[in-house]
Amino acid sequence: MNYSILYLNSSLKSVDSNLTETLSLSELNSQEVFKRLPVIVFISILILMGTIGNLHVLYIYYRKFNRSTYRNFVLTLAAIDIVSCTISMPFEIYDELYPYLFQANVACKVFRFINFTLAIATGLMLVVISSERYRRICRPFGSQLTEKQSIYAMIGIIICASGASLPALYVYGIKTTQIPGYDSVGTECTWGDHIEVYVGYIFYGETLMTVIGCMIALVVIYSIVGKYLWDHAHKMSKNMRTKYQMKEPIKLDVIEEETADQIRRARDSFRSIKQSNENGTAATKDEMKHNKLNKKARKLELPIINIKQNSDAPTSSGNTSPNHIPKTSPNWKGQKKLQTRDMKGLKKAFKNVTGRPAGANPLLSKPEKSVPDREKRITIVLFTITVLFIVSFLPYIVILILYSADESYEKSMTTVEHAVYLIGLRLYMINNVANPFLYSSFDSKFKKHLMEIYSFLSALI
């Protein structure tokens, strides 16, 4: 009987001790949640904005846009963003509400797997999109990604991202952790107690290398596209200047001095030839070349003398060409050499001014193909999404690297520093929220349909 009473008293003390410990953990958990309120508010705002914005994107691009690769890309990105805003972000809030009392082991594994899948899928998808932009802009006459192929590419990306994230199902789980400043031990959702620490670092390394590799590929591809557009704009500007020069008179004081000297020598030479010739025969081949060149010079309104034929001198057709040098004239060879030299100089001057050989026909020249404005606008939209992806992921990458180098630095933070640290870990979520705002800023068609929706709703009210 006495043993029974002692056992009962011992059991009551054990229950009371466990209750005290549980209450202590609950109080510590509540205190920590209060410190993390800025993080919870930040994620809640992202959920609200991202859900509403991406629902607009899904509706407008699905109902108002024609089927295309661009439409498929936008819809897939919006679907990923919706999943992030309705599943991943609410889980992050739940995780913040139970920093020391997290007990859902399966939920921890599944939601971490979803988070990594979405992040890797976004990076891979942007690489595929940038490759498609490269083909459209830099290789417009080459093979292009079709609308059907883009669907297969998106499905393949989701499968690859899921495969790369599978280790998260093993790595993550419930981990017991010492609460800073207290003797109590809590539980959190992170690398589980069942694995060695190096396994978690290996998985982190794999994820970091994948995301960083995507960033490097994006920078390289868009640098090539940007350089091509820059060079193309320069060529088009040069062509426009050439067209303007063909329509406007070209004056000696606005062209290079060397070109001006060539034109002056040719002008003086032909004037002296005209004055020295009094008789002649039929026009020679050189004269025909000169007349052709002079005709082109006249189109450009070059400041040279257009030598007219002397109707009083007989030729094979009853006229004389003043540009022809008869063999009977004094110093025939010298004058002939001078005329040939000045004709070459005039051809060179013509090329310097127009950018084409003297015999080139501007109407037969292959025009520089202009990049369509629609392709430029689409490229700008997708490029801004890429920039946002890189900028929003950089803090996450830096924090992971610092954490891998020294795990203890988090414990020495103040309350404000720790809140900033936790927000920095989740800044990548902005990538899932900001895309609708980018579409409304850079895609005029999306903005137009968006305004139509709200104009219709305001009319009903």
Automatic annotation (TrEMBL):
Keywords: G-protein coupled receptor, Membrane, Receptor, Transducer, Transmembrane, Transmembrane helix. SUPFAM superfamilies: Family A G protein-coupled receptor-like. This is G-protein coupled receptors family 1 profile domain-containing protein. It is a multi-pass membrane protein. Residues 267-292, 309-338 are annotated as: Disordered. CDD domains: 7tm_classA_rhodopsin-like. PROSITE patterns: G_PROTEIN_RECEP_F1_1, G_PROTEIN_RECEP_F1_2. Signal peptide: none annotated. One of its GO terms (cellular component) is membrane.
